[in-house]
Design goal:
455 residues, mainly beta, 16-stranded antiparallel barrel, globular
Length: 455
């Protein structure tokens, strides 16, 4: 804790020095804090799994947290900005006794980085150019409140999707982001975004990815399409393609966990086993649209977000692998959302549905625990197609979200069966972390409330 106090003291000294020597109008300091309370109403727990597989029982458990943050923005030049945004969380674990004592339930203050980047923008005629470098948040679907945002919130091989309460605008990238916006007229503009980033969320970390998104925006509709070449440049090919690592010898239990053995029939009596080395490297695609009918009629009773209909679909992995990924439709999540009319009583009241026909468990468990790009079967260190029990009781996910800001306060709530993970609420690695969902079935759900203030 003394280490964190020293860091905070240095930040305060730096801010004070900057403010004393520079025009205070070019320096902005803001902060926030929020208290979150929720409960998992239904969550399955499998206590008869392999001994090496850890699980935690979330059924009827309370989820509690308090976070606070500080954001500093320094202006330079004509349009330049330098941003630093950091937060602290109390780090409450699941309120479940998992050992002979209660020490694991003590609160833990944990700092985390939200945003640290430098940016600049300039306009030439009808074109606006923007660039930023550092660690920055990214959100390309402004209407998505929970589900969606698949391009940067999903794995490629294996496919795994992340979501949760007020996480739709919390995805972060590290690297370079550039964009060009071209104004055609007052009702229509086009935009192109390019991202060259180093991976920090998915395994293997630090590989470089290249993504680009093209968008068209008008008052009545928005449309975007994008491609993400995940793990395009590998810093260590043994990590990106584990079967090339001598550690994973063919025939061993972990060696077979990173390879695909495809039986190819040559004749009625002659067959051959084709060995394929799957990789975390792959390409994802996304398309989405938003339709706002309010511009078709003149009324002032609706809020800005009311009546917006939006949809997003993704293709997670363009390449078909035999045995495991032979059906492209099983790698295509589709989300549809509608902002119900709240008549300015609420800022947002959204309902979202997702259809995703993948037969596999939605988790990165195999990637982090066993360095394997193959789906997790629920068994320790094994990825055999014969062990897979197709999961189709989770094909539909749903979410209802509401939010209202009053002055410096904001209240929000959500009821959902989504892709919220157990990871933030359980002990961390090594060996103790868990990467599966709290609500792995459509019938599993939770509710969350949040009270937030702004400084």
């Amino acid at each position: 804790m003394n280490y964190y106090k020293c860091i905070l003291l240095l930040i305060i000294i730096a801010i004070s020095s900057y403010s004393a020597e520079n025009d205070s109008s070019r320096f902005k300091l803001s902060g926030w804090g929020y208290f979150t309370l929720g409960q998992v109403i239904s969550s399955p727990f499998e206590d008869k799994v392999a001994a090496a597989v850890i699980d935690y029982n979330f059924d009827n458990q309370w989820l509690v947290d308090f976070d606070a943050g500080l954001k500093c923005v320094a202006l330079f030049g004509k349009n330049g900005k330098a941003r630093v945004h950091a937060g602290f969380t109390t780090g409450y674990l699941l309120q479940l006794q998992i050992s002979q004592n209660g020490e694991n339930l003590r609160r833990k203050f944990a700092p985390y980085l939200i945003d640290a980047a430098i940016e600049n923008a300039f306009t030439r005629g009808k074109n606006t150019f923007f660039g930023e470098f550092g660690y920055f948040p990214v959100k390309y679907n402004p209407q998505a409140m929970n589900l969606g945002e698949y391009l940067f919130r999903s794995g490629t091989y294996p496919q795994n999707i992340n979501s949760g309460f007020e996480l739709a605008d919390k995805e972060k990238l590290c690297g370079l982001h550039g964009s060009v916006k071209h104004i055609i007229n007052e009702n229509l503009h086009l935009k192109a975004d390019l991202y060259f980033t180093s991976g920090m969320r998915d395994y293997p970390p630090h590989d470089f990815s290249l993504a680009y998104i093209l968008s068209a925006h008008s008052k009545i509709f928005q449309f975007s399409a994008g491609i993400d070449h995940a793990h395009l440049i590998s810093l260590n090919e043994h990590l990106t393609t584990p079967a090339t690592d001598p550690y994973f010898k063919p025939g061993s239990i972990f060696g077979d966990n990173v390879r695909i053995y495809d039986t190819v029939s040559l004749t009625e009596t002659d067959t051959i086993i084709d060995t394929i080395n799957p990789t975390f490297r792959g390409t994802k695609g996304m398309a989405r649209f938003t339709f706002d009918p309010k511009v078709l009629f003149n009324t002032s009773i609706f809020g800005d977000e009311d009546l917006k209909l939006y949809c997003e679909a993704a293709f997670l992995g363009f390449k078909n692998y035999p045995v495991w990924w032979e059906k492209p439709l099983e790698r295509m999540p589709i989300m549809v959302g509608l902002n119900l009319p709240a008549f300015k009583l609420l800022d947002v009241l959204s309902v979202e549905l997702e259809y995703y026909k993948s037969p596999y468990i939605n988790t990165a468990e195999n990637a982090w625990r066993y360095r394997s790009p193959l789906p997790f079967t629920g068994l320790s260190g094994q990825s055999k197609i014969e062990d897979v029990v197709p999961q189709h009781d989770d094909d539909i996910k749903w979410s209802v979200y509401a939010s209202k800001k009053i002055g410096r306060f904001r209240l929000s709530a959500q009821v959902a069966s989504d892709h919220i993970l157990k990871t933030p609420y359980v002990p961390g690695p090594p060996t103790s972390s868990k990467y599966t969902e709290i609500c792995p079935r459509t019938k599993d759900w939770y509710w969350m409330l949040r009270a937030m203030f702004y400084l």
